[in-house]
């Protein structure tokens, strides 16, 4: 309550009406699979185009190395080709994959993530000394080494490595044990005479720093003024921590060595060039179901499917080409547990007969998943010939396209599959009569109509949730209401709050009804919102619970269009 101290007129704002609600996005996809490079631990990477995917994860994978696990890149490409615009990608690797690296003098530079891609990383270090100055006087010895007076000691700090030159040639290295003004103390006594009072001194000392360049194909990273002094702001591990290509782990180098020797022991005083080595993609034996399901190591340390626990804005998910029942069941369970995403599943390519396809389908019963078959044929840019890939990537793109063009209430079916030149097998109507009621959505080549998704059913045995668009509509409604009404948390739980919440939700549902997402000729037929003493007991109120009951009448697709025709003869 405001304080009123002086007489006068006060104008104050207060909130009593509804708050506008915006629906959450339903077209953001999540993909999991093998890739050439990219992070394998932590939060999935956000990708907005196939070019963006190539930059972060590399291109297509060869079948000879990855076999049936090579389809992530193709799926992401199909997602964007079919109307998708944003997705998250989590890379998985074989359990025996290793990262390329190089080590010397206690410092290790390793590729950012595992894979033989890291063997192409080149690190170039060039000496870049700073603070070149002459030694004017040797002032004496102390317990830590030799004490000198220099012409300009501003560039020197404790822990710095220095290079000693005579006539431009390197004669040795040392470390600064102490620096104060123009007085420095070396860690190791120097046998040679460093003093040079000539106007143009031939003997000089400088702080050892270097410029480091990291390259991988077209990617180039440059780090200037890198130091081996752990207390320096330009310490190599600190400066290169922002690298997208390598990780640097290092401790303090006790000995005074050529800084370039952290890359290779055979470095010359001015330049070192080295390629990382030892990177491996691992073998097929290391690719197990656990690789895709991932490990929950806690925030920032999750892998595979478990990494998507870090996100709450992914609405469509797929693990392209991975048809293991254990992996698919884990994906479906993740979607059902979050209640915010929907799984798109592939059927093994080799399953052609309806009874074999049904045997695979019967392992899953969930309204948070849909299964699609057969595989689609595309032109493989890697091998320069047609190839078959799983349909999940293209279907996710069609989901996004339909959502953006029509709305989430429109069934993602009777939609053309773009960038598709054929199918791995052609099913007829009789075969679809067997598969469709069981919840297997076929992709069919229809004469004169192209290749289309010709099914919109979930993998559920519950008839209330047998259509993909109905489940996804409820996901959309639930997530929108959840995210757009958190303003009510901790507000006074009274009639005024109930009225505001009720008006807010009714306005949102009214817009949904007008857009065709809900059926009914009137609002009362389309939805209801109850909130108040009828939905809450006094005990609920005392325990901080606000309960609002919402009912909606979702629009269901016209799956069977039936025309009944008879002869009509006009009576004379």
Brief synopsis:
The protein has four domains: 29-95 and 284-469, Rossmann fold, CATH 3.40.50.11780; 101-127 and 210-275, Immunoglobulin-like; 130-207; 495-572. The protein contains 13 helices and 28 strands. α3 (72-81) runs parallel beside α8.
Walkthrough of the structure:
With 572 residues, the protein is of the alpha+beta class. It folds into 4 domains: 253 residues, Rossmann fold (3-Layer(aba) Sandwich); 93 residues, Immunoglobulin-like (Sandwich); 78 residues; 78 residues. Helices cover 21% and strands 26% of the residues. It is built from 13 helices and 28 strands. The strands form 6 sheets. Strands 2-3-1-18-19-20-25-26-23 form a 9-stranded mixed sheet, with helices on both faces. Helix 3 runs parallel beside helix 8. The longest helix is centred in the last third of the chain and has 20 residues. It is flat. The chain starts with 28 loop residues before the first strand and ends in a 20-residue tail after the last strand. The mean pLDDT is 91.
Mean pLDDT score: 91
Global Rg:
33 Å
Catalogue the unreliable spans: none
* Adjacency order of strands in the biggest sheet: 2-3-1-18-19-20-25-26-23
Number of strands: 28
Question: Tell me about the biggest sheet?
Answer: 9 strands, mixed
CATH architectural group of the largest domain: 3-Layer(aba) Sandwich
């Amino acid at each position: 309550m405001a304080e009123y101290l002086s007489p006068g007129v006060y104008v104050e704002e207060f909130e009593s009406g509804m708050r506008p609600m915006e629906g959450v996005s339903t077209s953001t996809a999540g993909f999991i699979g093998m890739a050439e490079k990219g992070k394998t631990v932590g939060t999935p990477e956000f990708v907005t185009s196939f070019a963006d995917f190539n930059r972060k994860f590399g291109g297509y994978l060869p079948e000879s190395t990855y076999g049936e696990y090579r389809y992530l890149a193709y799926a992401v490409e199909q997602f964007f080709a079919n109307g998708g615009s944003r997705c998250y990608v989590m890379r998985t690797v074989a359990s025996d994959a290793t990262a390329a690296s190089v080590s010397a003098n206690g410092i290790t530079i390793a590729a950012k993530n595992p894979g033989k891609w890291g063997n192409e990383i080149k690190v170039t270090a060039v000496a870049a000394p700073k603070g070149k100055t002459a030694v004017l006087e040797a002032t004496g010895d102390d317990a830590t080494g030799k004490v000198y007076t220099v012409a300009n000691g501003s560039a020197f700090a404790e822990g710095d490595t220095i290079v000693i030159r005579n006539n431009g040639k390197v004669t040795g290295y040392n470390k600064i044990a102490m620096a104060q003004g123009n007085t420095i103390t070396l860690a190791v006594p120097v046998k040679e005479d460093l003093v040079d009072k000539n106007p143009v001194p031939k003997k000089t000392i400088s702080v050892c720093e270097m410029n480091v360049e990291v390259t991988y194909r077209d990617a180039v990273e440059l780090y200037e003024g890198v130091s081996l002094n752990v207390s320096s702001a330009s310490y190599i591990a600190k400066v290169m921590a922002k690298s997208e290509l390598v990780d640097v782990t290092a401790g303090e180098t006790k000995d005074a060595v050529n800084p370039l020797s952290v890359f290779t022991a055979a470095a010359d005083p001015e330049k070192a060039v080295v390629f990382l080595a030892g990177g491996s993609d691992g073998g097929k034996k290391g690719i197990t179901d656990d690789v895709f399901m991932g490990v929950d190591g806690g925030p920032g340390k999750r892998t595979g499917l478990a990494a998507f626990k870090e996100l709450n804005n992914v609405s469509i998910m797929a693990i392209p080409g991975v048809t293991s029942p254990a992996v698919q069941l884990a994906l479906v369970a993740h979607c059902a547990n979050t209640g915010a995403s929907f799984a798109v599943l592939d059927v093994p390519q080799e399953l052609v007969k309806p009874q074999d396809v049904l045997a695979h389908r019967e392992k899953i019963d969930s309204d948070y998943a849909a299964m699609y078959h057969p595989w689609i044929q595309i032109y493989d840019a890697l091998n320069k010939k047609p190839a078959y890939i799983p349909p999940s990537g293209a279907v996710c793109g069609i989901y996004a396209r339909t959502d953006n063009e029509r709305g989430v209430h429109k069934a993602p079916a009777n939609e053309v599959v773009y960038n598709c030149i054929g199918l791995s097998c052609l099913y007829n109507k009789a075969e679809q009569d067997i598969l469709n009621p069981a919840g297997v959505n076929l992709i069919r080549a229809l004469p004169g109509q192209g290749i289309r998704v010709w099914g919109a059913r979930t993998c559920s045995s519950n008839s209330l949730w047998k259509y993909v668009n109905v489940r996804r509509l409820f996901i959309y409604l639930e997530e929108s209401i959840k995210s757009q009404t958190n303003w009510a948390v901790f507000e006074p739980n009274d009639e005024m709050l109930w009225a505001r919440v009720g008006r807010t939700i009714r306005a949102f549902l009214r817009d949904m009804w007008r857009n065709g997402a809900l059926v009914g000729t009137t609002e009362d037929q389309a939805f209801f919102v109850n909130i108040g003493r009828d939905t809450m007991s006094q005990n609920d109120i005392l325990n901080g619970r606000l309960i609002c009951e919402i009912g909606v009448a979702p629009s269901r697709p016209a799956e069977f269009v039936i025309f009944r025709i008879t002869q009509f003869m006009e009576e004379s």
